[in-house]
Amino acid sequence: MIIDIGIEVKNYSKKTKDKTGKIDKTVICDCPNCHAKQSATYYCTYWRHAFVFEMKDGILKLIDHHLEIIRVECNSCETTHAILPWDAIPYKQCSLTAFLLIMQKVVLADNTLEKAPKKLQPSSQFIYEMVCVWKEFWASVTSLLRVAFLTYLESEAEVLQFILKNTKMVVEQYIKHNKWGIFMTHGRKQNPRKITVGIRGN
Ligand SMILES: [Zn+2]
User: Fold this and answer.
1) Each residue's pLDDT tens digit, 119-130
2) How far is the CA of 81 from the centre of ligand 1 (A)?
3) What's the pLDDT tens digit per position in 129-173?
4) Do you find a cis peptide bond into 192, omega within 30 degrees of 0?
5) CA 30 to ligand 1 center in whole angstroms
């Protein structure tokens, strides 16, 4: 898996397709598995959902962006890797920005889960799952802030505020330090890990 920090959910199609809507098959990047330089080239595409929050009629709503994701294959080790926008959470239908907005409403406003859904469109089950993801990750994000940003924060609220202000930089540093996507739970506990996570662009 390759996280492209130059592409976001909203402009993924624009950045990966030409004016006629055809996929750019000239894509080339380093392999996150064997680390061979410029060895991964176009292989295929697949479709996935990515939800982002957008304002509609003054209300914050979840909008479903259906993305045609590019997969590349390494010519050296023959593994294949999806190229994902930096604000998508791999294997989750919720975008990172939507996830952080939900956490902002729940963690910062100190809302109970029963109250929160009334202010947001997503279901309480959806929010509960997102809160579990946050709880699983926030300690490792706190460590990252110390190591990569020399920032010593104690509370969940402070850590969340920092991520909200510096989202892209935190995403980038998290991948570099942990070789893993931030808030990415799928395959995380497998040992040895079957998924490799690389980073691309700037
Ligand atoms: Zn490779």
Assistant:
1) 556 778 888 899
2) 9
3) 999 999 999 999 999 999 999 999 989 999 999 999 999 999 999
4) yes
5) 8
Residue 113 has pLDDT above 60, yes or no: no
- Please, which residues have CB within 8 angstroms of residue 4's CB and are 6 or more apart in sequence? 83, 84, 85, 86, 199, 200, 201
Residue 23 CA, ligand 1 centroid: distance in Å: 22
Residue 192 CA to ligand 1 center (angstroms) comes to: 17
The candidate with the shortest Cα–Cα distance to 97, out of 128, 62, 145, is 62
Q: Where do the domains of the chain lie?
A: 2-200
Is the pLDDT score of 59 beyond 80? no
Check residue 5 and report its DSSP letter: T
Amino acid letter, 202:
N
Rounded-to-integer distance, Cα 118 and Cα 99, Å: 17
